[in-house]
Design goal:
Helix content is about 35%, strand content about 20%. By secondary structure, the chain is an alpha+beta fold. Strand 3 and strand 4 form a beta hairpin.
Length: about 180
């Protein structure tokens, strides 16, 4: 199994135990936990109250519709999903968006548990909070690259994906 933790975040001591047990119970390739948004020492709570199971294409559709987040850090992956053709893009920001859909497409079962076990620290100097034009552009490009790569295979998600891209383009219009 492989898991990721951003250097400025932290996890509950039992996060990987819980994700591993959920993987075993449901024979899942990927398990996902809820997380706390930690901003100025205040935590916002989790988003879901029930365990959700996504099979096959449902998993990618859940990712594309943001029912499963575009980030790597609150997940546990079976190691064999990370094949030689999946690599993080060198020198690019938003590498999660550019990579995770490729891993999820290889999975058969993704399970999302309702327990928040990851603490995502938000601060003004983080890449996702910095309002530099380059950061916004990288964010838009990451989603456009994903759209170009898989939108044809997921027609039911095309409109949502385009809306998501536009939401990130909109702040650029006033820059």
């Amino acid at each position: 199994y492989i898991g990721f933790v951003d250097s400025d975040d932290w996890i509950a001591p039992d996060m990987y135990d819980c994700l591993y047990l959920a993987a075993q119970e449901h024979q899942a390739d990927i398990t996902v936990c809820e997380y706390y948004n930690c901003w100025n020492r205040k935590n916002s709570g989790p988003h879901s109250q029930t365990t959700r199971i996504y099979r096959g294409r449902e998993a990618t559709e859940a990712l594309l519709s943001l029912k499963v987040g575009n980030y790597l850090w609150n997940k546990l992956f079976k190691r064999e999903l990370w094949t030689a053709d999946i690599r993080f893009p060198v020198g690019k920001l938003f590498e999660d968006v550019r990579t995770i859909y490729k891993v999820i497409q290889k999975s058969e079962i993704v399970v999302a548990i309702p327990e928040p076990k990851y603490y995502y620290r938000r601060h003004n100097s983080s890449i996702t909070r910095t309002t530099h034009l380059k950061n916004h552009l990288e964010c838009v490009l990451s989603r456009m690259e994903r759209f170009d790569d898989i939108a044809e295979d997921y027609p039911s998600q095309r409109a949502f994906m385009l809306k998501n891209i536009f939401e990130y383009i909109h702040p650029l219009q006033s820059a």
